[in-house]
Design goal:
alpha+beta
Length: 714
């Protein structure tokens, strides 16, 4: 067939194809039978079932549609919140020390740290510079998945909830399952800064930050993510190392390591690292200064976690368990708490109690002497008092220039701010006041050999009536020397002498020596009815020892800011004005020496060196004193009850004298024996006394007799 145009059509004509002869087909197999067509999907014939199915499909589509939209919205909100928190976070250095107040570190006379006040910050440390043992101990204890999560640990939270519920607590009470990152979020108070207008104290601010509400837990999540996005893992750990509170006023692991072990956190052993990490659970409870055994037990638990997680080899673990961490000597002694409180009070508040800077105070404190005083007190009380006795005592040890070397403000180991019976308790002084009467007399020209009458005495006190002092023994010695009257602590002789030289003169001498409290107006002044503190009395006796020059007791030598070389405040106490002549002081020292050698203070006699002092017992035995000195130190001792209950069978020449002796034996241990600066009897016996001796209450022709007649009549 010819095609038009000589071209074959693209599509053959069906008729042509059909008419065209076809080649014969080979015989083929019978066609396979096609499988039967699956029946059409059966429709629900029950309209109720169909309706339920339709409703289910509709609800599912609705839930899915809302769910993915809500999920997307939540993710966007979370991302926005994370970005917001991340934008608010400062540079790393701005987060390491966020204390609102500074600290005070006190150094003893040898330049060694013995006390801290406020929250001490030991200095910035990093996860790279800290001891690897400490770093691993923290991770093993607080968050073993720290380097593997993104800020939160769902597994840890679920485990904590399970534990809380199994122990009968709420799901968020007790174990929180918080990661280290979440704990850092708490330490940063989720970015909320401290506001003095909102929170009265930092303690209230931190308590609010630690509240475990559901909403706060929810806020922790984006903040933790922001921390992970802003900082590296080691930087987050660095914040944690520097901001964690670890008990005893230590903020951060460097401060805690210095506080408890006297070394940097970079140098702690496995046992020390474990003890420090163990503090994180409950700093006050596990502080080694509070209970060393409890802290060691907690440290052993942390060591077990470190070993189980591969942070300690077998030999390291065994050695650490066999040798638990021990406190440094200064931390173990806990010495000087009362002294430190007194020094804090002696400086300006803006540089001590309320300082916003870190302050270093150099002091007169001697840790050896403090330990000696505390040990002596314990030994005497354990041996002499019944168990459970509420009797209190206080001790002050001082140099002759007023430098306080040790202070015991009570029997129990003190906490910061405890009542200090050495500096705060005003008590009647009893016969320890009498040396000021004799000081006034000696400075006027009397000598230890001058005669005074010890006999019954009655004085008409205007406004009060007749007053008759008595001796403690109810016996009288007649005519005695001044030395004998002081040695035997004769009351009527002291009153007669006080009236003879004049009460104003006695008050002036006592006041100038440092007896700063208000003194009695009447003749009972001579018997020590005026009140004073133990610190004042010890300082007044120091003035006698140094030759008659007043002293102002002091503990602060200099105060400077940490890192500065120039002090802001220097020594505020020490030697003052002369009160009595050196001759009068030397004679009085000799007289007070006789009190110990053969008088009422015999139980204070020392076996290896000279000592001088005076006993004191107040009315109804409510207070018992012994104050005295060797050539090197002045020691004052007071005993009594806080509620003014009378002591039973205790006088100043008894237990206080024994405590004084025990303290002096320990304080002077290793020191060469030096003689007291006392006058010899030959020095005043070689020349006649300025005044003739008084031979009686009346009828004498000497100046004292004439004065006594004017006072007492006859």
């Amino acid at each position: 067939m010819a095609f038009k145009g000589g071209r074959r059509p693209l599509v053959a004509d069906r008729r042509y194809v059909a008419s065209k002869p076809q080649p014969a087909k080979a015989a083929s197999k019978p066609a396979a039978k096609k499988p039967a067509r699956a029946p059409a999907r059966r429709r629900y014939r029950n309209p109720i079932v169909a309706a339920i199915a339709w409703i289910w499909r509709s609800i599912w589509r609705l839930i899915w549609g809302i769910g993915w939209r809500l999920g997307l919205a939540g993710a966007l909100i979370l991302a926005g919140t994370v970005f917001y928190f991340m934008a608010q976070l400062p540079a790393l250095d701005g987060l390491l020390d966020a204390r609102q107040r500074g600290s005070v570190t006190m150094l003893d006379r040898d330049g060694k740290v013995f006390a801290w006040r406020g929250e001490t910050f030991g200095g910035q440390i990093t996860a790279e510079t800290v001891s690897p043992y400490l770093k691993n101990a923290i991770v093993a204890t607080e968050d073993k998945r720290f380097y593997g999560h993104l800020g939160i640990s769902p597994r840890g939270i679920a485990s904590a909830i399970r534990i809380n519920l199994s122990e009968g607590r709420g799901p968020l009470q007790g174990n929180g399952g918080s990661t280290i990152t979440q704990q850092v979020a708490k330490l940063l108070c989720l970015g909320v800064p401290y506001d003095v207008a909102k929170w009265k104290t930092e303690a209230e601010y931190e308590a609010d930050c630690r509240k475990g509400s559901v909403w706060r837990k929810v806020k922790e999540i984006p903040f933790a993510f922001a921390l992970e996005a802003k900082y590296t893992k080691n930087e987050i750990l660095t914040i944690y190392l520097n901001r964690s509170y670890l008990g005893a006023g230590a903020r951060g692991f460097e401060a805690a390591s210095q506080r408890y072990f006297g070394k940097s956190a970079a140098n702690v052993t496995p046992a020390e690292a474990a003890m420090l990490a163990g503090l994180l659970k409950a700093p006050s409870r596990y502080a080694p200064t509070s209970n060393l055994q409890r802290a060691q037990d907690r440290g052993a638990l942390v060591l077990g976690l470190m070993h189980d997680q591969g942070f300690l080899k077998n030999v390291e673990y065994d050695e650490a368990i066999a040798n638990p961490a021990q406190l440094s000597q200064a931390a173990a002694a806990r010495a000087g708490g009362f002294f430190a409180d007194w020094v804090m009070e002696s400086g300006p508040s803006f540089l001590t109690r309320e300082t916003t800077e870190d302050v270093i105070i150099s002091t007169t404190f001697d840790q050896r002497i403090q330990t000696a005083a505390e040990t002596a007190l314990i030994e005497v009380f354990d041996a002499k008092l019944r168990e459970g006795s509420e009797t209190q005592a206080a001790i002050v040890v001082m140099s002759a220039d007023g430098a306080v070397r040790a202070m015991v403000g009570g029997r129990k180991t003190p906490n910061a701010g405890d009542f200090n019976r050495a500096t705060q308790a005003l008590r009647q002084t009893g016969s320890t006041f009498k040396p000021f009467i004799y000081a006034a007399a000696l400075d006027m020209g009397y000598t230890p050999d001058s005669i005074i009458l010890d006999a019954p005495l009655t004085i008409d006190v205007p406004g009060s009536g007749l007053w008759s002092p008595e001796n403690y023994t109810k016996e009288y010695a007649g005519e005695v020397t001044l030395a004998t009257a002081l040695e035997r602590s004769l009351n009527t002789a002291a009153v007669r002498l006080s009236e003879a030289v004049g009460r104003d003169a006695v008050r002036t001498v006592a006041n100038q020596f440092g007896f700063a409290s208000t003194m009695a107006e009447g003749p009972a002044l001579a018997l020590g009815v005026s009140e004073s503190t133990l610190l004042e009395m010890t300082g007044a006796y120091a003035g006698i020892l140094n030759g008659g020059t007043s002293v102002r007791p002091y503990g602060l030598i200099e105060l400077r800011l940490q890192g500065d070389d120039v002090p802001l405040i220097g020594q505020a106490g020490g030697l003052g004005e002369r009160v009595i002549s050196p001759t009068a002081a030397a004679e009085l020292i000799w007289m007070m020496q006789q009190v110990i050698e053969q008088g009422s203070g015999a139980r204070a006699r020392l076996p290896d060196r000279q000592a001088a002092g005076k006993t004191g017992t107040t009315s109804s035995a409510r207070d018992a004193w012994f104050v005295g000195f060797t050539a090197d130190y002045v020691v004052g001792v007071w005993m009594g009850y806080d509620n003014n209950t009378p002591l039973t069978g205790v006088t100043g020449g008894g237990l206080p004298a024994e405590i004084w002796k025990a303290v002096m034996l320990k304080v002077n241990e290793g020191l060469p024996a030096r003689p007291l600066p006392a006058a010899s009897p030959e020095s005043w016996r070689a020349s006649p006394s300025v005044v003739a001796p008084a031979t009686g209450n009346s009828g004498t022709s000497d100046p004292i007799g004439r004065l006594l007649r004017e006072i007492f009549g006859g």
